Backbone:
């Protein structure tokens, strides 16, 4: 395989390209990349904070083992649901995997919808301290006593910018912001704005966007129905039967899992739970589209345009000789 060089702005060729395909949930990103793998030596690097967990298969729309045998996928099924993952670990793992793919003279394509991971990989990691289990436990204990809304209000007082940026129901990021403040005595937002620890690598960024919210809503509803029909509730039941998991874990805060966990206690609420998951997924898609505005994407296509996969193929052909 030959490669078209990537300029670093000083008329030098710097390495091999890395491709990013970003977009909201239920937009068909992974399916089209897998189809392109019949034409290009693609290996997929998953950018998904839920697919890293073993046993979370149906509710994450994880590609099946048959597909993953045909097209190599990375950063899938690398953790037990009792463990936690982070943007920092993703950046480290993704860099290692990308180097290995390049060593095989193949194309790494980062695909997914966890935009915090994309953002961290794109911009580099800020000078944030590592997590401290004791501090984090203390913050979570406070939340149980006074409520998350109180902790969010306190964050808004200590760090107004973070208070505005972090949703009042986003427990994980509220905890992280308080943790950073406790460990450093500085505002979380100030540390985020510091120069990154590493410069961003060279890459080709692509994205699919959604403009027809009604069509997206229908796709989401159909997908949720298919997932439940495929045994999503039974998947959650198996996770619950382990006895060492609970719905506050990062893995089970993935959309739909906590809802179905509680539905197991009240089976008569399945239809309402189904609707709750649809609405939560739409909310996720809206947040993903908001995230996407932060990126200077070279190639951006409307998911309602049926020709966008062909346009993506043309982009890959221009990069690969």
Residues:
């Amino acid at each position: 395989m030959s490669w078209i060089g990537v300029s670093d702005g000083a008329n030098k060729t710097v390495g091999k390209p890395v491709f990013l395909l970003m977009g909201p949930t239920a937009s068909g990103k992974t399916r089209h990349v897998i189809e392109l793998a019949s034409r290009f030596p693609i290996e997929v690097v998953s950018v998904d904070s839920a697919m890293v967990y073993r046993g979370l298969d149906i509710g994450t729309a994880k590609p099946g083992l048959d597909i993953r045998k045909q097209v190599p996928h990375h950063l899938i099924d690398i953790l037990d649901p009792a463990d936690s993952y982070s943007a920092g670990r993703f950046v480290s793992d993704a860099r290692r995997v990308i180097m290995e793919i390049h060593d095989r003279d193949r194309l790494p394509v980062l695909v997914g919808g966890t935009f915090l991971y994309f953002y961290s990989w794109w911009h580099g990691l800020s000078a944030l301290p590592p997590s401290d289990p004791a501090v984090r436990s203390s913050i979570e204990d406070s939340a149980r006593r006074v409520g998350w809304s109180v902790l969010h209000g306190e964050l808004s007082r200590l760090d107004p910018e973070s208070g505005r940026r972090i949703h009042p129901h986003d427990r994980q990021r509220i905890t992280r912001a308080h943790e950073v403040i406790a460990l450093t005595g500085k505002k979380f937002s100030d540390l985020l704005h510091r120069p990154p620890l590493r410069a961003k690598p060279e890459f080709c960024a692509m994205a699919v966007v959604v403009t027809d919210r009604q069509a997206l809503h229908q796709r989401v509803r159909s997908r949720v129905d298919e997932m439940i029909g495929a045994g999503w509730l039974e998947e959650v039941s198996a996770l619950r039967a382990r006895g060492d998991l609970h719905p506050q874990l990062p893995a089970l805060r993935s959309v739909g899992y906590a809802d179905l966990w509680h539905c197991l206690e009240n089976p008569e609420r399945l239809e309402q739970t189904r609707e709750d998951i649809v609405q939560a997924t739409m909310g996720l898609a809206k947040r993903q589209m908001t995230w996407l505005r932060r990126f200077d994407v070279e190639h951006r296509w409307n998911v309602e345009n049926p020709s966008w996969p062909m346009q993506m193929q043309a982009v890959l052909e221009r990069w690969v000789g």
